[in-house]
Write a structure and sequence with these properties.
Rossmann fold, 162 residues
């Protein structure tokens, strides 16, 4: 069985002239989903977008667009999810919603790779972490290996590299 994966990046790959629901239906048809109505409704509800299902994407806030892009990426229940800076530009309330959705994804059914500068939220979800400096990995290990304040740990690793 081929591995299915999806990416959530800075660019959400959403069509501004379509509604939130129309975007999900469009991508669902591309993925060949047979239970499209159920999947689209579930994703809209799970990501707190059911009240904005008929809104044009261009009229949504940045946080809502991020959640819709995540719904699009998760439509077909992928095995691997790649998240590139999912917290960028989110207000605190949208970040809390996103944190809950990402916590729900930690179900043992998939692999999630997240690149983030938001260390607190990233580590709250992580089982494994890595630190990059100047384009290369300088540390990687289990989340449990990081003692105390991650900021101090991070700076200690980076300073040890210079």
């Amino acid at each position: 069985m081929a591995t299915q994966n999806r990416v959530l990046s800075h660019q959400g790959f959403l069509y501004g002239h379509l509604s939130a629901e129309e975007n999900l239906r469009f991508y669902g048809q591309l993925f060949g989903l047979s239970d499209l109505d159920d999947v689209v409704n579930h994703k809209l509800q799970h990501l707190g977008l059911q009240d904005r299902a008929g809104s044009l994407v261009r009229d949504l806030s940045h946080g809502m667009k991020q959640r819709l892009a995540l719904a699009r990426a998760l439509l077909h229940d992928p095995d691997i999810v790649l998240l590139d800076e999912p917290y960028t530009g989110l207000d605190p309330s949208a970040a809390i919603v996103l944190q809950g959705v990402l916590s729900d994804l930690k179900d043992g059914q998939r692999t999630i790779v997240m690149v983030t500068h938001n260390l607190t939220e990233g580590l709250a979800l992580a089982t494994t972490a890595a630190i990059m400096n100047r384009g290369r990995f300088v540390w990687q290990g289990k989340r449990a290996e990081i003692e105390g304040d991650f900021g101090q740990f991070y700076h200690g690793v980076i300073e040890g590299e210079e």
